[in-house]
Design brief:
Strand order of the largest sheet: 1-2
Strand content: under 5%
C-alpha cells in the first residue's frame, strides 16, 4: 500500500487503526486495503443527500469493479462532492487507486478480499432497501408527521445482518491468518471459523445497541419486531420513560448476547498460536474495549442511553498498556478477560 493510502487509513479508521498498526506485516496490507474499500462502500451508502437509486447504482458499480478489474472504471466524483468530511471525500476520489492496489496481491488473497467485500456490500444494499423510503413515499418536510420507524422483522434477519457486515470479516481475517501466519498449525477449523464469525457479530451488535437511540431518530430499528412484541414494545415508543421496565430487560438480553459473542471471540484469540504476539493483541483490543462498552451500557438508564456512551481515550490506553504488559505470560494473559458474572 502507498503512503497516501496509509494516511487515508489513519484518517478514516479511527480506533481500528490501533489494531491495524499492531497486525503482523504479512497481513496488514490486505486487511488495510479491504478496510478502505469497505469504508468507501459505507460512505456511498451513508450519503443520504443522494437519492436511494443512485446510491444503489454506485454500490453495484463498485462491486462489479471489485469482482472484474477489466470492467469500466468507476467515477464517484459527484458523490465525493456531497461529502462534508474531507476524508470521506478523499475515499471516493481515490477509489481507483484502491482498486488498482487490490490487483497487486496474489490471486488467493484477491479472492479472499473480493469475497468479504461483496458480502459487506450486500449487507449495505439490504440495509438501504429496507430502511430508505422510496422518493414517492417521502413525506413533505413542510408538513411534519410522526416519525415512522422501520424495524427488522425477526431474530434471523438481525443475525443475517450482523453476519453480512461484520461476521464475514471474522472469516476473512481467519483465512488470511491461516494462509500467511500459521498454515501448518493443527486447529479445529470448524470451531475456529464459528468463533471468528461470532467475534465479528458481537462487535456489530455492540454498535447496534450503543447507537440505538440515534438509529431510531433516523427511522431504523435493528431490534426485531418479534422480540419487541413479546416485550410489549414498539419501535416508536420503546425509549419512552413509561416503557423503561419493559425495555431494559430486552436490552440487557441483547447485551448478554453481545457478551457471549465476544467471549467466543476470546476463545478464538486464545486458539491462535501463543507465539503470534501481534495477532493476539490485535484481536484482544476490540474484545476488551467491547467488554468495557457493554459494562457501561449495562449501568445505563434510558436517559443515559440517549447520550453518547463511549470509552474514553484514557480507558483505551489503559487496556492497551495492560495487555502489552501481560502478553508474554500465558496465565496473566488468559485472565485479561474477567469470568462471566452470574446474575
Amino acid at each position: 500500500m502507498t503512503a497516501s493510502q496509509n494516511e487515508l487509513l489513519r484518517a478514516t479508521s479511527r480506533s481500528f487503526y490501533l489494531t491495524l498498526r499492531v497486525l503482523p506485516a504479512a497481513i496488514r496490507p490486505q486487511i488495510g486495503l479491504a478496510y478502505l474499500l469497505a469504508r468507501t462502500a459505507d460512505t456511498i451508502a451513508d450519503t443520504e443527500i443522494v437519492p436511494l437509486a443512485q446510491r444503489l447504482e454506485a454500490l453495484q458499480k463498485l462491486r462489479e469493479r471489485i469482482l472484474e478489474p477489466r470492467s469500466s472504471p468507476v467515477n464517484f466524483s459527484e458523490l465525493a462532492g456531497q461529502q462534508g468530511a474531507p476524508e470521506e471525500k478523499l475515499l471516493l476520489e481515490k477509489v481507483g487507486d484502491s482498486l488498482e492496489t487490490l490487483q497487486k496481491f496474489s490471486e488467493a488473497d484477491q479472492k479472499i478480499i473480493r469475497n468479504v467485500l461483496t458480502t459487506i456490500i450486500s449487507g449495505q444494499e439490504l440495509d438501504l432497501k429496507r430502511f430508505t423510503p422510496s422518493e414517492s413515499n417521502v413525506v413533505d418536510q413542510l408538513m411534519p408527521e410522526p416519525l415512522q420507524v422501520i424495524a427488522l422483522e425477526s431474530v434471523r434477519e438481525l443475525d443475517d445482518y450482523t453476519y453480512r457486515v461484520a461476521g464475514c470479516v471474522g472469516e476473512f481475517w481467519s483465512k488470511l491468518c491461516r494462509a500467511h501466519l500459521f498454515p501448518s498449525v493443527r486447529l479445529d477449523e470448524s470451531q475456529f471459523m464459528i468463533d471468528a464469525v461470532r467475534f465479528g457479530k458481537g462487535l456489530q451488535l455492540i454498535n447496534i445497541l450503543r447507537d440505538l437511540p440515534a438509529d431510531l431518530k433516523k427511522g431504523r430499528c435493528y431490534l426485531p419486531t418479534e422480540k419487541l412484541e413479546k416485550a410489549k414494545l414498539s419501535p416508536q415508543t420503546m425509549l419512552s420513560p413509561i416503557n423503561e421496565r419493559n425495555f431494559l430487560p430486552l436490552y440487557h438480553e441483547y447485551l448478554d448476547k453481545a457478551e457471549e459473542h465476544l467471549r467466543a471471540g476470546w476463545d478464538y484469540t486464545n486458539t491462535l498460536p501463543f507465539s503470534q504476539f501481534r495477532l493476539r493483541l490485535a484481536c484482544a483490543w476490540p474484545i476488551l474495549i467491547g467488554m468495557k462498552t457493554i459494562e457501561k451500557l449495562r449501568r445505563a438508564s434510558l436517559v443515559d442511553l440517549k447520550q453518547s456512551i463511549k470509552i474514553s481515550r484514557t480507558e483505551v490506553r489503559s487496556i492497551i498498556v495492560r495487555s502489552l504488559l501481560v502478553s508474554p505470560v500465558r496465565l496473566l494473559w488468559l485472565n485479561l478477560l474477567p469470568q462471566k458474572q452470574l446474575r
